[in-house]
Specification:
The chain has a domain of 204 residues: 3-Layer(aba) Sandwich (Rossmann fold), CATH 3.40.50.1100. The protein is built from 16 helices and 13 strands. The strands form three sheets. A six-stranded mixed β-sheet has the order 4-5-13-10-11-12, with helices on both faces. The protein has a four-stranded parallel β-sheet with strand order 8-7-6-9, sandwiched between helices. It is globular, with a radius of gyration of 21 Å.
């Protein structure tokens, strides 16, 4: 495993992996895994990647914190990237690509993190894995640990969407619904892991979650023939996906695989906009209400906010807030303009891109990649709010004609 050390994002102290399993023992800051890039360069090249038959994140093993790829389990990563020409034209963009990470095994981007964390935990012979989540990280962990022999304990706020909780239960996790917020569930999970010796997968706490998430940047680079877009847009809650993308692009750039690092844009819901506020004011990340229809980014205090802000500043990026109404409208637009069923948190990224075009932050003719982080079936109630209700008719043509007069079917030329 080519890890040189774990660098604290707070005090910059470097620790050996065995001395700091989660956060900095000196100041409590989040840790950044530093790899032997010189060694990785000998194993990762454009030619080597082109010849690798694996269509999963394990094709990037020289830059992952495990010794070997798992022998079994569902493939994670290598999700499709495709053009969205209609949406690109509507926004005045040269190109718009959508990377649909809702195609992962549990229908979420979080599978990237869980795949790496589970593999590392099993190499360490951990027997109980735990996480706090609004749903996606939890269902991801339960999915990818199922059949491994390890037990999974999940802490969710009682408001977590029923479809996500159902996934947890079907995969065999012990689910504890906390009468409180995500932040309450997060803190309880940390205390429980210390008390009972469980392995903690929490986002923005376990440094290896970022290592799985950075593989999305690696894939984007490959899928775009190592010609990065001008911008990459993604929604942000804890900020861990954002910091993962930044780390992935930076590592490929350092290896000489990318000519430059694209600018990153973080999109948050207006009620959960702690990272946006810190980026705008230059102040530290502070707690906000966290209230939004987009449960996957409903976070009061982002646990990876320091790294997220560093990602935005080092890439000369942008941070945008959008309303819940804009998020629901973006769900409809992605579905009808690009055939993608996105959950609210995932659709927030497109709502942010719209705002960035209106303000001129993203210029006409630029090339943008949009990360869809979760499938719309994760939150059916929000999808019903976005799509509306069906029209009830009697089983006869008279009733059908009456309905069509009230609501004509509009067609447009392809």
């Amino acid at each position: 495993m080519p890890i040189l050390g774990l660098e604290c994002l707070g005090c910059a102290r470097v620790h050996a992996p065995e001395a700091a399993p989660y956060t900095c023992p000196r100041c409590g800051g989040n840790l950044l895994v530093r790899f032997d890039l010189a060694g990785a360069r000998r194993r990762l090249s454009r030619r080597a990647l082109a010849q690798d038959p694996r269509r999963s994140l394990w094709r990037y093993l020289p830059l992952l914190p495990v010794d070997e790829a798992p022998e079994s389990g569902p493939p994670v990563g290598w999700t499709p990237l495709f053009d969205a020409p209609r949406l690109a034209r509507s926004l005045g963009l040269s190109r718009l690509w959508i990377k649909d990470d809702g195609r992962n095994p549990s229908a979420s981007f979080k599978d990237r993190a869980s795949a790496v964390v589970v593999a590392r935990a099993l190499e360490r012979r951990e027997r109980v894995l735990a996480a706090a989540s609004t749903g996606n990280a939890a269902s991801s962990l339960a999915c990818l640990a199922a059949g491994s022999g390890a037990s999974v304990v999940i802490f969710v706020p009682k408001s977590a969407p029923a479809p996500k909780v159902a996934q947890l239960l079907v995969f065999g996790a012990t689910v504890l619904a906390v009468d409180g917020t995500y932040d309450d569930a997060f803190d309880l999970c940390v205390h429980a892991c210390r008390e009972f010796g469980w392995y903690n997968r929490n986002t923005g706490f376990n440094p290896y979650t970022r290592e799985g998430k950075k593989t999305c940047a690696f894939e984007l680079a490959e899928q775009l023939a190592f010609e990065p877009p001008d911008w990459v847009f993604v929604s942000a809650g804890d900020g861990n996906i954002l910091s993962g993308l930044w780390k992935g692009f930076a590592e490929f750039h350092a290896l000489g695989l990318l000519p430059r690092i694209p600018r990153l844009a973080a999109v948050q819901a207006a009620g959960s906009d702690s990272i946006v506020r810190a980026f705008e004011t230059g102040r530290p990340v502070a707690a906000v209400s966290g209230r939004t229809v987009a449960d996957s980014i409903s976070v009061s205090l982002p646990r990876d906010g320091v790294a997220a802000l560093r990602a935005l500043r080092e890439t000369e990026g942008a941070a945008l807030r959008v309303s819940d109404a804009e998020i629901l409208d973006a769900m409809r637009s992605l579905a009808r303009g690009a055939n993608v069923f996105a959950e609210p948190a995932a659709a927030a990224a497109f709502a942010g891109l719209r705002r960035a075009r209106r303000s001129g932050r993203v210029r006409s003719g630029e090339r943008v990649a949009l990360i869809v982080t979760g499938n719309g079936l994760k939150d059916v109630s929000a999808a019903r709010r976005a799509g509306g209700a069906p029209r009830l008719i009697a089983p006869d043509l008279k009733s059908l004609r009456s309905a069509l007069r009230r609501h004509p079917i509009r067609t447009e030329r392809p």
